[in-house]
C-alpha cells in the first residue's frame, strides 16, 4: 500500500478529501482534510434526478483542486467514490466521462449497501467496542444503516431519505407534514434492530453534535466518540426546527448549514424515534475512513488485530524513538497493578488505560525533555482519537502529568475534564503505580530484573540497580496504609 493515500468522497451535498499517511503497518494519521459544499444534487430531485450543469461545474472544479492538494503531499494512490447523487442520476455517465477526460480520475460509484458498509466498518474499527449498535449516516440524498455486533458488520440498508432530497421535495414548499410522512414510510423498510445504541455518521449529525457540545460546555474538544442521550438530542432538534436564522447562530449552527440543518434534524428525529434508541454516539469517521481502511486492512479481513490501537501506535511511531523505557514501564505497571489493585480497591478494568499511559509515558521527550510530562499529556489528549472513549482518553492523558510531591488528583486543571475521570482515590492509585514504575526503572534496566513481593500492605521491591530509585522514591505520594522497602 502507498505510504500516503488520498480519499475523495463525492456526496450529494458535500465533497470531502482526506490525505492519510501510514507510520507503520497499520498505524496512520490524517495529514490534511478539505471540504467543498459542491451541492452536486442541487435541483436534481426537482428534475427527475438529472444533475444540473452548474452543480457539475462546481464539482469538477473542486475535484481539480482536491487532486492538486493530494499531489502536493506526494499521494501515490487516490481513491475516489461517489454516492447517492451519481448513482441516482440518469446523466451520471456524462459527468463521469468529463472527470475522466479533464482530470484522468476514475470515480467509483458505490451502491447504498457498499456506502453503508464503509461507514459501519470504519465505526467498528475506530470507535470504542460496542456489543451492539446501528450506525446511521444521513447524507444529502440517502441514509445508510449498518447493524454492528461485537465489532462486525452484520446487516446493511440504504433508504432514499437525505437532507437535500427532503429539502427540495418538501421543505422548499413548506410541506413539513409531507416530509414526515415520506420519511416514516421509508423507515418501514427497516427490520427491528433491537439495539439501544445509535452511532451517528455524516455532516448533519456531526453539526448537531458539535453545536450541542458547545451549548453544554462539554470539557473535551473531541467530536469522535462523544456520547449523549436521545432525550437531550431530541430536545435540541426541536429547538432547531423552530429556530430562525438568528436563533440558529445562537445554537452554534454554522451559516453554510442553515438550509439543510432543518430537514437533516427532522430525518434524525424520525429515525431515533423509529428505532427507539436511548444512547447516541457520534462518529467522526465515515465513508472516507472506510474506503481507506478497506485498502489498509484488505489482507486482514477489514479488521485491526486484537488489542491493536492505531492512535497509540501512531504516537509511538512518531515520538518514541529514544529508548524502550516506556515499554518496560508498561510491563512493570501491569505487574504492580495485578499485585496492588485489590489492596488499593481499583477496578481491574483500569489496567488497560494504565498500560497505555505507561507506553506513552515518554512521548513528550520527542518534543522537549524539560517538562516532557506536559508535552506527553498534550500529545495524548490531542492525538488519541480512535477506539477509546472520552473517559479513557481523559484518564490516559491525565496520568501522564507528574509533579514531585503531588498526587494525581492535585494536578487537575481547573474547569477541565475532571468530570470524565474516576474518583480521586482511583486516580491517585493509578498515578502512583505509573510513577512508581517509572522511578524503579530510573537506571533504564529491564523490568524483568525487578522482583515484586506484596504482603499485608507492604511492598518489597528488589533488584540490582535501585540506587537512583531509592533517591527518587521520596518524591512520590504513597497511598494510605501502604509501605515500600527497596532492597538491592
Description:
The protein has 488 residues and is α/β, with parallel strands linked by helices. It folds into 3 domains: 4-109, ATPase, nucleotide binding domain (Nucleotidyltransferase, domain 5, 2-Layer Sandwich); 113-288, Exopolyphosphatase. Domain 2 (Nucleotidyltransferase, domain 5, 2-Layer Sandwich), CATH 3.30.420.150; 310-487, Orthogonal Bundle (Hypothetical protein af1432), CATH 1.10.3210. The chain is 44% helix and 17% strand. The protein contains 18 helices and 14 strands. It has helices at 53-72, 84-88, 92-103, 112-126, 163-169, 176-187, 203-215, 230-242, 245-250, 258-275, 287-296, 310-319, 325-344, 351-359, 372-383, 390-399, 424-440, 467-472, and strands spanning 4-10, 15-22, 28-36, 77-82, 108-109, 132-138, 143-149, 152-159, 197-201, 227-229, 279-282, 451-455, 458-462, 483-487. The strands form 3 sheets. Strands 8-7-6-9-11-10 form a 6-stranded mixed beta sheet, with helices on both faces. A hairpin with a 4-residue loop joins strand 6 and strand 7 (143-149). It is elongated, with a radius of gyration of 26 Å. The mean pLDDT is 95.
Amino acid at each position: 500500500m502507498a505510504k500516503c493515500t488520498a480519499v475523495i468522497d463525492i456526496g450529494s451535498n458535500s465533497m470531502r478529501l482526506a490525505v492519510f499517511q501510514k507510520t507503520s503497518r497499520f498505524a496512520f494519521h490524517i495529514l490534511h482534510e478539505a471540504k467543498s459544499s459542491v451541492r452536486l444534487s442541487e435541483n436534481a430531485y426537482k428534475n427527475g434526478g438529472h444533475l444540473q450543469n452548474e452543480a457539475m461545474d462546481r464539482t469538477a472544479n473542486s475535484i481539480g483542486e482536491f487532486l492538486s492538494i493530494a499531489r502536493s503531499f506526494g499521494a501515490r494512490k487516490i481513491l475516489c467514490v461517489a454516492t447517492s447523487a451519481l448513482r441516482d442520476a440518469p446523466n451520471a455517465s456524462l459527468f463521469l466521462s468529463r472527470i475522466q477526460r479533464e482530470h484522468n480520475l476514475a470515480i467509483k460509484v458505490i451502491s447504498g449497501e457498499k456506502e453503508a458498509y464503509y461507514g459501519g466498518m470504519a465505526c467498528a474499527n475506530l470507535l470504542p467496542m460496542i456489543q451492539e449498535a446501528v450506525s446511521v449516516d444521513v447524507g444529502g440524498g440517502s441514509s445508510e444503516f449498518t447493524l454492528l455486533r461485537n465489532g462486525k458488520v452484520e446487516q446493511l440498508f440504504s433508504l432514499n431519505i437525505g437532507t437535500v432530497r427532503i429539502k427540495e421535495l418538501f421543505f422548499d414548499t413548506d410541506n413539513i407534514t409531507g416530509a414526515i410522512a415520506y420519511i416514516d414510510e421509508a423507515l418501514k423498510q427497516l427490520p427491528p434492530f433491537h439495539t439501544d445504541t445509535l452511532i451517528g455518521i455524516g455532516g448533519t449529525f456531526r453539526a448537531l453534535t458539535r453545536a450541542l457540545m458547545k451549548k453544554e460546555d462539554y470539557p473535551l474538544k473531541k467530536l469522535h466518540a462523544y456520547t449523549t442521550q436521545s432525550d437531550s438530542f431530541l430536545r435540541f432538534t426541536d429547538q432547531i426546527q423552530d429556530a430562525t436564522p438568528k436563533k440558529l447562530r445562537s445554537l452554534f449552527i454554522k451559516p453554510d448549514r442553515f438550509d439543510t440543518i432543518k430537514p437533516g434534524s427532522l430525518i434524525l428525529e424520525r429515525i431515533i424515534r423509529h428505532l427507539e434508541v436511548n444512547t447516541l454516539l457520534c462518529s467522526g469517521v465515515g465513508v472516507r475512513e472506510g474506503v481507506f481502511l478497506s485498502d489498509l486492512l484488505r489482507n486482514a479481513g477489514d479488521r485491526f488485530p486484537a488489542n491493536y490501537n492505531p492512535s497509540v501506535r501512531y504516537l509511538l511511531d512518531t515520538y518514541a524513538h529514544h529508548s524502550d523505557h516506556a515499554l518496560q514501564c508498561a510491563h512493570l505497571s501491569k505487574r504492580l497493578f495485578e499485585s496492588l489493585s485489590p489492596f488499593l480497591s481499583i477496578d481491574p478494568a483500569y489496567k488497560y488505560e494504565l498500560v497505555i499511559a505507561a507506553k506513552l509515558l515518554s512521548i513528550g521527550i520527542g518534543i522537549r525533555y524539560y517538562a516532557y510530562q506536559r508535552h506527553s499529556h498534550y500529545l495524548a489528549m490531542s492525538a488519541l482519537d480512535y477506539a477509546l472513549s472520552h473517559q479513557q482518553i481523559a484518564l490516559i492523558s491525565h496520568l501522564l502529568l507528574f509533579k514531585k510531591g503531588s498526587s494525581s488528583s492535585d494536578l487537575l486543571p481547573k474547569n477541565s475534564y475532571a468530570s470524565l475521570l474516576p474518583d480521586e482515590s482511583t486516580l491517585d492509585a493509578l498515578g502512583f503505580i505509573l510513577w512508581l514504575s517509572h522511578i524503579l526503572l530510573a537506571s533504564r534496566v529491564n523490568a524483568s530484573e525487578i522482583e515484586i513481593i506484596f504482603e499485608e500492605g507492604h511492598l518489597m521491591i528488589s533488584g540490582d540497580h535501585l540506587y537512583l530509585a531509592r533517591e527518587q522514591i521520596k518524591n512520590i505520594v504513597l497511598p494510605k496504609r501502604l509501605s515500600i522497602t527497596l532492597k538491592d
